[in-house]
Amino acid sequence: MKLTDLVEKLDYELVYGSLDKDIETLVYDSRKAKEGSVFVAMVGAKSDAHKFLPGVLENKASAVVVEYVPEDLELNDVTTVIKVKNSRLALAILSAAYFGYPADKLKTIGITGTKGKTTTTYMVKQILENAGIKTGLIGTIETIIGEEHIPSVNTTPESYIVQEYFRKMVDAGLDCVIMEVSSQALKLNRVGGFIFDYGIFTNLSPDHIGPAEHESFEDYLYCKSLLFRACKHGIFNADDEHLEKILEGHTCTVETYGLSEGADLRASDLKLYTEDGVMGISYKLSGILNMDVKIDIPGRFSTYNSLTAISICRHFGVSEEDIKNALVGIHVRGRVQMVNVSKDFTIMVDYAHNAMSLQSLLETLREYNPKRLVCLFGCGGNRSRDRRFEMGEISSKLADLTIATSDNPRFEEPEDILNDVVTGIKKADGEYVTIIDRYEAIEYALKNALPGDVIVVAGKGHEDYQEIRGVKHHMDDVEMIKKAAKAVL
User: Fold this and answer.
1) Neighbouring residues of 360: CB distance < 8 A, sequence distance ≥ 6
2) Selecting from 3.40.50.620, 1.10.10.60, 3.40.630.30, 3.90.190.20, what CATH number does the domain 337-488 have?
3) Torsion of CA 161, 166, 167, 172, to 10 degrees
4) Mean of the per-residue pLDDT values for the chain?
5) Residue 176, pLDDT score
6) DSSP string of 334-372, one letter each residue
């Protein structure tokens, strides 16, 4: 393609050279820059790519996009220099052009919020797919393009990768894409270069606050709100206390869901149920849609997740019957994922790996009045020790039995990690056992399960490995539960 076409929607200053040249590749890794390349120099938290410009020019890249021109940079007669205010935003705009503006050929749905993004994306995908709408997914666990599943590194990839995935989805004949949009993605313009058809806000609570992410809760909230200046139609949780702030500066239409009276789509008459080892919740839906909903995932948060999914899918002309059928029997890998090995007790796998998420999960399960609530978890090595104390204390307070085991010890000794967890456990009065080997811990939980028990295997969720001294070994909680069930049940 021509460089003039690549920069057609970019706000830039031409510092040096010509735009009348052919372009083969768009890159943001200086090592990949060569003749025919446009290199975008981005300023990161740890590194400034502008320092690699001499090597890029030496390799005769066709053009470089910069935020500033280093004083000692020696220009050549080959490389065009383009200056922009924000090179991350520039990469997003250039990537959209490079891949032929694929978002224009898809219905795009972006979900942001502290909790519920992953589960909701899978709900939406399943509902739409059941209705014959071919849907791609980009999220924390994976990217799904037709039959292709690509494991994720970030919740929301770099803008170039987002546009590349969109292009692949268009080429694969997909109609729609649902994606998780993290606060970091919004802050770093990973979803720049296009306007979402639908933007969704699930909820907000303090998270990702720290020197490497957001300097304050206010910054975190502000970044979340940016989605609603970059979408056509906004769908919001009416019950969240931060909604008013999230709506500041929005440019989209507004629709709400929730439990409160004023919500456009409202859930009421919530009822918990347990059937054959499966826990779920049902409710009456009223407002824009009126129907009964049943979902095989436990807890109040499942009401919100399903409300979000329904709010989205109704815009695609999905029938009430398709919505109902999709929600019954739905499961999301590693997110309150039921593993059906017995009708006498319930066992599930969940990603809860910090104090806040574990407390929320255990409090939810307590509402089902289990015979006993059993919590099996470990904590990762080379991470905050406070998390171990906190999770141990919460499990001891809310669970009848805690089974402390290993997670990803990394470069620490598993025994040392367990000792910290036990220190937390002893701050409350719950019973506990320690079993370092995670498979043996799961086997113990199944062997000693009582009728009516609810067992949570927490911490790893969708992860299928255990990291020990820099090496990742295959380990999947669901696989181990099924293996242990065959051995002891």
Assistant:
1) 115, 301, 352
2) 3.90.190.20
3) 130
4) 94
5) 98
6) TBSEE--S-SSSEEEEE---SHHHHHHHHHHHHTT--S-
Q: What are the sequence ranges of the domains in the chain?
A: 3-98, 102-327, 337-488
| Residues counted in the chain | 489
- Tens digit of pLDDT for each residue in 276-329? 778 999 999 999 999 999 998 998 889 999 999 999 999 999 999 999 988 887
Amino acid at 430: G
Which residue is listed with tokens 């065009």? 80
Q: What is the pLDDT of residue 479?
A: 97
Residue 122 token pair: 């899978």
**The CATH homologous superfamily of the domain defined by 3-98:** MurE/MurF, N-terminal domain (3.40.1390.10)
Residue type, 309: A
Q: Hey, what are 195's tokens?
A: 């306007």
Query: What is the rounded CA–CA span in Å between residue 349 and residue 455?
Result: 9
Structure confidence at residue 207 (pLDDT): 55
27-31, 212-216, 242-246, 354-358: least confidently modelled range:
212-216
Bridge partners of 283, per DSSP, are 293
Alpha-carbon gap, residue 173 to 134, rounded angstroms: 8
DSSP run (H or E) holding 82: strand 80-83
Q: In DSSP terms, which residues pair with 142 in a beta bridge?
A: 151
Q: What are the strands, taking DSSP E only, across 359-435? A: 373-377, 401-404, 431-434
For 91, the token pair is: 């990469």
Sign (positive or negative) of CA dihedral 312, 318, 324, 328: negative
- The alpha-carbon radius of gyration of the chain (Å, integer) is 25
With beta carbons less than 8 A apart as the criterion, state whether 361 and 334 touch. Answer: no
The CATH class, in words, for 102-327 is alpha beta
